[in-house]
Design brief:
- It is a single chain.
- This protein is of the alpha+beta class.
- It has helices at residues 23-33, 39-61, 98-104, 179-190; strands at 6-8, 16-17, 66-74, 77-89, 119-125, 129-141, 147-158, 165-173, 194-196.
- Helices cover 25% and strands 34% of the residues.
- A hairpin with a 6-residue loop joins strand 7 (147-158) and strand 8.
- Helix 1 runs antiparallel to helix 2 (39-61).
- It starts with 5 loop residues before the first strand and ends in a 15-residue tail after the last strand.
Length: 211
């Protein structure tokens, strides 16, 4: 039996935890729209919030344990990003190797194919230990004929005491020109993840050389 009963993920101060109902996202959209009179900026904001609605719908559909995000208007433009945590269990008799992970994560919902820039690696998460990670530019379908590109990072956190249970930390952003900065931010956020016991004590990181 796993000693891990809960998890913590440090969310940046500018990020809000979504209620997954869409109401909170609508309120944030109204505040951001009110901050500018530029028609072009308003159109960009509306487009990006449509993407946000799709992300929160997906979070509800796949049973997210946590969903958070930010929509912040800077002088350079609007920055949006989303973070979610999902629980997954591998079938009995199967191991989560990198080839298996490759077949399951980082597939664009709009095309059913892996992004050309997809990278699959093993990383060392400070409070967890070795974990598998997939990054890439995925295409998410907004409507039947409209898809949007998102920079994504999925990191599989092995649940201590279990060989089949994982928590997946997924982060995404439509701000493609900020690719390097976005991935640095996502890596920093993911690095704060840790498992806790029922008493609230941190579960020690697992030893190992990676997936």
């Amino acid at each position: 039996m796993s000693t891990a009963q809960r998890f913590l993920l440090d969310i940046p101060d500018q990020w809000d935890q979504f209620d997954l109902s869409g109401e909170e996202l609508a309120q944030v959209r109204a505040r951001v729209l009110a901050s500018t009179d530029d028609p072009r900026a308003k159109a960009e904001i509306n487009d990006m919030f449509r993407q946000g609605r799709e992300v929160t719908r997906a979070a509800r559909r796949y049973g997210a344990l946590l969903a958070s995000g930010t929509a912040t208007l800077y002088p350079e433009g609007l920055f949006m990003a989303y973070g979610m945590v999902f629980a997954v269990t591998t079938p009995a008799g199967h191991e989560l190797t990198l080839p298996v992970l490759s077949a399951q994560l980082g597939i664009s919902s709009a095309t059913g194919e892996a992004p050309k820039d997809r990278v699959i690696t093993s990383v060392q998460v400070p409070h967890v230990g070795p974990a598998a990670r997939v990054t890439g530019t995925e295409v998410t379908r907004l409507t039947g004929d409209i898809g949007v590109k998102l920079l994504t990072m999925h990191t599989m956190m092995p649940v201590p005491g279990s060989t089949q249970d994982f928590l997946v930390v997924t982060l995404a952003s439509p701000n493609l020109p900020l690719k390097n900065e976005v991935y640095d931010l996502f890596d920093a956020i993911t690095g704060t993840f840790r498992f806790l016991t029922a008493e609230g004590e941190q579960v020690p990181a697992q030893a190992g050389s990676g997936a």
